[in-house]
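Review the following:
>
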Amino acid sequence: MAGRPTIIDVAKEAGVSAATVDRVLNGRQNVRTDTAKLVYEAASRIGYHASRLIEQRLSETLPKFRFGFVLTKPNQAFYQSMARHLEQAVNAAPSIRGEALVEFCATQTHRDIVQMMRDVGAKVDALAAVAVNHQYTTAAVTDLKAAGVPTISLLSDYAQGERAAYIGLNNLKMGRVAASMLATAIHAPGKVAVFVGGHRWHGHELRETGFRSYFREHHPLFTVLDTLVKLETRQLTHEATLDLLERHPDLSGM
């Protein structure tokens, strides 16, 4: 096209009429969101001078939706990265004007996590949280559900039957994969140790179950020792590992 792009050029690029482009630009009458998005994308592609205005008009027609996220371990790089990606995903959602409210729980006790879930849940349209599997957690999810705020469990599942969905790994399968890798690396039967963060984390419980079931099924000559809880802390993990090696000098893997 020669010269500065016009409304007619935008319409041609988007496959709509010039009148439709005009309605999107000026906010006249209702234009379907998908049509307005086509117009915006076409305007951006050809460098139409008012593409930012179309973007603004488009955002004004979208419904507002506020997502709440409750995460743990505020100083851990994994959760900091997770928070950034959650915020980016909400901001980039094409069909809504999304806002993300991300809060970190400084402890991993069920009381503190549940209280934060309730506090954040009271301010948002939907909640996603990393939490322990506990009766108080289920009660909070049930109350939020009754208030019209669905809850999604992240990474480790909880409140089955009450939460709206679970987003995370198949933890039973992950436990079996870990057992397979360890058995392959060890070759000959021997003693194997298992650490978990805690028994209230449903994901940890399932991974342990998968781990043990794989050895039972495929490598019954291995000895899987009693499970050790490390509470996700470096110091306790270090101390427990030293004690383990002292008690089992013939340990083959962990």
Notes: The longest strand covers residues 64-72. Strands lie at 64-72, 97-105, 126-129, 151-154, 165-167, 191-192, 195-196, 223-224, 228-229, 251-253.
